[in-house]
Amino acid sequence: MSEKADLKHYLRTLSAQIEQAMDALVPAATQYPESLYDSMRYSLFAGGKRLRPVLTLATVEALGGDMAAAMPVAATLEMIHTYSLVHDDLPAMDDDDFRRGKPTNHKIYGEATAILAGDALLTQAFQVLGTMEAKGREAVLLRIVGELATAAGSIGMVAGQMADMENEGSKASEERLAFIHAHKTGALLTASVRIGALFADADEQQVQALTSYAQKIGLAFQIVDDILDVEGVAEKLGKAVGADAAQGKSTYPLLYGLEESREMVRRLTTEAHQALSGVALRTNRLQEIADWLINRDV
Amino acid sequence: MSEKADLKHYLRTLSAQIEQAMDALVPAATQYPESLYDSMRYSLFAGGKRLRPVLTLATVEALGGDMAAAMPVAATLEMIHTYSLVHDDLPAMDDDDFRRGKPTNHKIYGEATAILAGDALLTQAFQVLGTMEAKGREAVLLRIVGELATAAGSIGMVAGQMADMENEGSKASEERLAFIHAHKTGALLTASVRIGALFADADEQQVQALTSYAQKIGLAFQIVDDILDVEGVAEKLGKAVGADAAQGKSTYPLLYGLEESREMVRRLTTEAHQALSGVALRTNRLQEIADWLINRDV
């Protein structure tokens, strides 16, 4: 099997396991109030790359940790990511009708339910961490709670979304655009890797190297997103091409041009590989994921 | 000092300490993005009885625990409560313009910021628990994370709000009304007491007694709320009298009549007192709080 085919198989296998874990961790849509659980599950199982939990699990694997035991922890990253999409799509926010080619949550369930489903998905992540079998590792799980909440909350992802909205309609400065990307997507991607490292008892040097790797691919991922928004294919993106520009959002291609943006992605990817080279870990999957992220066309 | 004056002083002292703790735990509105932190703090410091953290602290006190050490934990209850008010007031939800006599969050900051401020306050609660000084008590704090998330989330408070919205405009059954109240307000009030009990290392029998107390006063509190909505004074409530009825919400007076509702409150209060009588705890404050809750006029 080629490396590419092998990675595809690896990602597909992990995605299936993550979805199985989420299915067990989120209330079934057969109990009252059904529409809340329907709405939560609609967005949770609407597809997607499952990049965040995959990063958590690949990091656990790199450290020789227990991937099966890490599955609920990995699932919490996807719950947080999904809640953020549901709320970002709301009419009062980005007002998006489609996400991954399907109607957004509020288009199906209405605004009120979408707000509540988002709230519930966010809270569910902490419910999972606070009630899962700790097996004597309560201190590690508590630290993961802190890591996840810090990345998702007022000085992390939410600050990024706030900054993104405030800068709509005006060309953001380079500094401001870096802030938006580091917080809106970077914080949770970095936490995905760091949480895997904490779960698998990485030492401080390993945590540092993995954090650096995650920050590089997090930014590269976002710049690729910006590039795809300019030149991508609507069908593959599942949303309108040029949507960011239409909303007056600042992007890397807008600020730096397409060529320089592509160059930044290449540079960041090289740096991500280098960050991992210094530590004695089985990082081949993490390296492959870095390459996959920048070469994706969707 | 009369018992009543003494309780008033006690509640005022605790409220001040809780607000001091929250002030330290929530990002200052002087850092970027300012409007997010402004909005979070606007609702967090908009007054209110601070009933939930007071219950946590009074429970810690009843068990002879360390009230000062419990302060950040108590503050997380108020953060969760505040987030729920901010989201409940949104146009897509209850569409309220005033809360405690002041414009609601979205009337000042706009819908998008109000949604994000709510998300951030919810997440902040878990950030506090996950990053506070654990002093070797990580297992207890992790259990508190689970308790808080379960009470606030998809099978707790959010389920109650969902049920409340679904039953707007139609007379709910007795069973459905009980579900709404037990989840929308009961779950977090009960968690406030249980979290105090966990923090102060209560034994299983004490936790059971305190849980029963909390469930009784939680329901009594909500029925009193319903009664005040019918006969209260708009000025004191800080919102329009009869707002529930106008929104077609089912209430205890509507379903059972005013007299029977008042009788239920009396019965529940007696039961709350009885629940505490069996355990050897300094529960005088909790007893006083129960009486204060049902005799309040606002």
From TrEMBL, chains A, B:
<dbReference type="GO" id="GO:0004337">
    <property type="term" value="F:(2E,6E)-farnesyl diphosphate synthase activity"/>
</dbReference>
<keyword id="KW-0808">Transferase</keyword>
<dbReference type="InterPro" id="IPR033749">
    <property type="entry name" value="Polyprenyl_synt_CS"/>
</dbReference>
<dbReference type="InterPro" id="IPR053378">
    <property type="entry name" value="Prenyl_diphosphate_synthase"/>
</dbReference>
<keyword id="KW-0460">Magnesium</keyword>
<dbReference type="Pfam" id="PF00348">
    <property type="entry name" value="polyprenyl_synt"/>
</dbReference>
<dbReference type="InterPro" id="IPR008949">
    <property type="entry name" value="Isoprenoid_synthase_dom_sf"/>
</dbReference>
<dbReference type="GO" id="GO:0005737">
    <property type="term" value="C:cytoplasm"/>
</dbReference>
<comment type="similarity">
    <text>Belongs to the FPP/GGPP synthase family.</text>
</comment>
<dbReference type="InterPro" id="IPR000092">
    <property type="entry name" value="Polyprenyl_synt"/>
</dbReference>
<keyword id="KW-0414">Isoprene biosynthesis</keyword>
<keyword id="KW-0479">Metal-binding</keyword>
<dbReference type="GO" id="GO:0046872">
    <property type="term" value="F:metal ion binding"/>
</dbReference>
<protein>
    <recommendedName>
        <fullName>Farnesyl diphosphate synthase</fullName>
        <ecNumber>2.5.1.10</ecNumber>
    </recommendedName>
</protein>
<dbReference type="GO" id="GO:0016114">
    <property type="term" value="P:terpenoid biosynthetic process"/>
</dbReference>
